[in-house]
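Hey L., structure's done. Input below.
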Amino acid sequence: MSIPSKDIAHILRTEDDFLVTAHVNPDGDAIGSMAAMGFVLQHLGKRFTLYNQSGLPRDFAWLSLPAPITTSIPDCPACWTITLDCGDLHRAGDALMTWVDRQRLINIDHHLGNPGFGSFNWVDTSMASTSQMAAQIARELGFPLEGALGEAVFLGLTTDTGSFSYDNTTARVLELAAEIVRLGLKPGQFNAKLQNQQPLERIQLWSRVLSRTQLLDSGKIALVTITRQDLDATGTGMQDTDGIINTVRRIKGVAVAASLREDGPKEIKFSLRSSGNVNVQPMAASFGGGGHKNAAGGTIFASMSEAESSLVQALRTFAETL
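Output:
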């Protein structure tokens, strides 16, 4: 059932005991929307658990949370489940899929292609981030976007708009950001916490990976690969790869940037980035993935060489249309 934000606000006001989750390997919008929803439930005096199969990334350890993020599903068979920023239910992780009560599942998301897997669905692809949607629910309930709640929303806005540089940076996004700043958030202090936390090992990983950047089709396509050997050699993890593809996209003349990351034996995570009217979501969908017009991805179950060959072929076919 597709419902508006005011109906979700009504459920939060009248029901109790919620499990709040987001996609595995959470980014800033996933963590920001989880925290924001948790603060809303806290303000309502509700029982809730923040759960993520991957846990809290160290990049966001500084963020104030209404409760710890657990990696274990609690014993609450009558819980409502709120999934945030999940284009499909499997994005929340295998453990949740086998546990969740489909009759008490609230799906809040902004991804193209979301199938409406919840019993209650609010999917709005015009939203720049799911944190923006959490902010709308907070407003429906009369909670000002100040303090830790505002900071959580600002995190999602910042990360999903590329620090307000992507095409999804609409007037509504900037007005929401301005509202949060008016209510006390200090952008300089916030950005210092978000951006100035890079460990040396991450810089070494990026240097190693970026040195192998391939330019294809007269520079229209840029491709990088990230192997387990890269991570092992630099003492880094999956979270340290976030952002590499955005750097590649900034190369002059590049219309589409792609990255391939070896997550396991014959499990290759691919990411696609573009700008303007270049829509990479259908290409991601052709490999069983999804996402947005300018940011999409998925998983290819093959070796790195096989995945690279398949993706390059698709990219070259796509480049003919640019």
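Residues 68 and 164 are 29 Å apart (CA to CA). The chain has two domains: 5-195, 200-319.

-- N.
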